[in-house]
Write a structure and sequence with these properties.
With about 210 residues, the chain is an all-beta fold. It has a domain of about 140 residues: Sandwich (Immunoglobulin-like). It is about 0% helix and about 35% strand. The protein has no helices and 10 strands. Strands 1-2-3-8-7 form a 5-stranded mixed beta sheet, with no helix packed on it. A 5-stranded antiparallel beta sheet has the order 6-5-4-9-10, with no helix packed on it. A hairpin with a 3-residue loop joins β9 and β10. The two termini are about 25 Å apart.
């Protein structure tokens, strides 16, 4: 009989703090998040070596993320017309933090936050909302211009910061619902995929319970 391997991150429930910030975003500097905003990387539980550092913060105006990717030898592959498979930070959020449904509700969101993809040379950062497959209902629509993203390249990777405003998050109410369901995937054609909770082959991109 074949042995079934269960991802170790599926064996327990865990939560991580998203610390409050006084100022969410600046036009030039983006998100200013220090070491205290760093998220733990649990990929080591499956023997994976993280290639990205992720930080997050919040206030009543929305959420901000910062990612630093290293150990790359090739530029990230990003296309504005193919954001769902582009290199970058992909984020899933459930503003109601429901763990017992397997199809997305209107409180579930997916965003692609990319270090490139726009412009004639595909080198301008891109931030877009994406629909979730098999969703029962989509959240309210928001113009992609409401999402903010800045990115810069360095010798062996890139740095990216992004803001998702409260108006882009259906049901975002930290006073009434202080916990959110959360998953990220740093997708990279060269380095592979790094996720917060359990990754593939589990269908985390469409199943809020994951």
């Amino acid at each position: 009989m074949a042995q079934t391997l269960i991802p170790r991150r599926m064996l327990f429930h865990f939560a991580a703090p998203c610390r409050r910030v006084k100022r969410l975003w600046t036009a030039r500097g983006g998100a200013k998040l220090d070491e205290s905003h760093r998220l733990p990387t649990l990929a080591e539980l499956e023997g994976q070596t993280p290639t990205a550092e992720i930080r997050c913060g919040w206030n009543t105006s929305g959420l901000v993320f910062w990612v630093y990717v290293q150990r790359k030898q090739q530029p990230p592959w990003c296309r504005e017309e193919q954001p769902e498979i582009s290199d970058g930070l992909h984020v899933w959020l459930d503003t109601r933090d429901v763990h017992n449904v397997h199809r997305a509700t209107r409180f579930c969101h997916r965003f692609a936050l990319l270090p490139g993809g726009s412009g004639k040379k595909h080198d301008q950062p891109t931030a877009v909302w994406l629909p979730i497959n098999r969703a029962r209902q989509d959240p309210r629509q928001v113009d992609d211009d409401a999402l903010k993203v800045l990115a810069s390249r360095h010798g062996d990777g890139y740095e990216l910061s992004a803001m998702i405003p409260a108006e882009a998050l259906t049901g975002f109410d930290p006073s009434e619902h202080p916990r959110v369901g959360f998953q990220y995937a740093v997708i990279d054609r060269e380095l592979g995929e790094q996720t917060f909770a359990a990754g593939r082959p589990l269908p985390y991109a469409e199943d809020p319970s994951l």
